[in-house]
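Final report, Chapter 2: Outcomes

The project's central promise was a pipeline that accepts a single protein chain and returns its three-dimensional structure in a standardized token representation, suitable for archiving and comparison. That pipeline is now operational. To close this chapter, we reproduce one record exactly as it appears in the project archive, with the input sequence first and the structure output second.
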Amino acid sequence: MSEVREILGYPMLAATMGEVVDLCDRAIVDGQPIQIGVMNAAKVVNASRNANLRDAILSCDIILADGQSVVWASRLLGQPLPERVAGIDLFIHLLELADAQRRSVFLLGATPEVIEQVVRVVETRYPGARLVGHRDGYFTDEEAVAQEIAASHPDMLFLGMTSPKKEMFLERYETVMNVPVTHGVGGSFDILAGVTKRAPEAWQRAGMEWAYRLVQEPGRMWKRYLRTNVLFSVMIVRALVSQRLPVGRAKTSEVA
């Protein structure tokens, strides 16, 4: 088992993509459910202001660095993570595992049109994966959906839903569904369906996927990314200061 590193208040797994896939494979074989949480800069910022989201993330069995900025932060804070394990890349690797080993999959989320396209893509690219169920993310009866998933007995459940909806759904119904591997993949369904385009690999390696999306949707995204990036940077600076400032000195300064 890989080590866990404390990054900005979250116990993140210091693991490579291959190690995470192996963990998921073992969870299926052993029948021991594993819930995967992923963190990027935006989610770290949002969770700092949303206690429900923070609690849902912390309830996950493993938490991974989905964003390159989180990996950079881990190194600055002296808790280095080996690499970024992007949620969409893990999604693809797990579909490949399902294809190779005839594992069963349930897809939940996105619009009716998008989820139908995702089903077609999975059936075409990963014919060995057994799709035991799917439905869109526009539902009100959460318990009925959880029961539907439980009745289909998937090896893996992928949720193409926004935060904090997907994290809170998993937290509430993990024991009801009893799925060996659950992974909230966010907007990955839109990418797999060809609705949105992912940043080129060079942009990904540079940790600039957010900038690529900003270029695509400048009017809608610039305020969100400006606020998120600034607040995330402030959180890192505060964490560095708290690491380096002796307790005694801090108290003296306060008295003065």
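Archive annotation: The chain has 13 helices and eight strands.
This record, like all others produced under the grant, will remain available to the consortium after the project formally closes.
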